[in-house]
Amino acid sequence: MLTVYHNPRCSKSRAALALVAEAGVAHRVVEYLKTPPTEDELDALLRLLDLEPAEVTRTHEDVWAELGHDRAPPATRTAWLRVLVAHPILLERPIVSDGRRAVIGRPPENVRALLGS
Predict the structure, then answer these.
(1) Residue among 2, 5, 6, 10 flagged as catalytic
(2) 10 is known as an active-site residue
């Protein structure tokens, strides 16, 4: 079963979710702004993505600058994970995982790698 970390206000996220639904693949939707991943869950997702927290951070969001991270980003992986969990709006979206692999659905076609097409 796929897990789609989804932001319904994001057109790319909606498009990726539509691809999953059209493929008829069993999935669950996690609206991560309402239900953010835990630090451990996010760490596991990043490992599946083979990315570091900085690579999935939306640094152009206002909250990034409001937190002062435009001048001094988090110094450690753990600190960065904590920022992302506390401020999930900073997470790139959508993230789709089958539990063994994960992709960022930007562009939405990236999700096809998990659909078998």
Answers:
(1) 10
(2) yes
Structure tokens belonging to residue 79: 């600190």
Q: Give bridge partners of residue 95 from the DSSP assignment.
A: 5, 104
> What per-residue string of b and e applies to 37-72 under the rule 16 or more CB within 10 Å gives b?
beeebbbebbebbeeebeebbeeeeeebeebebeee
* Half-sphere exposure at residue 79, Cβ-oriented, CA atoms within 13 angstroms: 7
Structural domains in the chain, CATH included, are 2-115 (3.40.30.10)
Whether the full predicted model's pTM is greater than 0.85, yes or no, is yes
pLDDT in tens, the chain (117 residues): 999 999 999 999 999 999 999 999 999 999 999 999 999 999 999 999 999 999 999 999 999 999 999 999 999 999 999 999 999 999 999 999 999 999 999 999 999 999 975
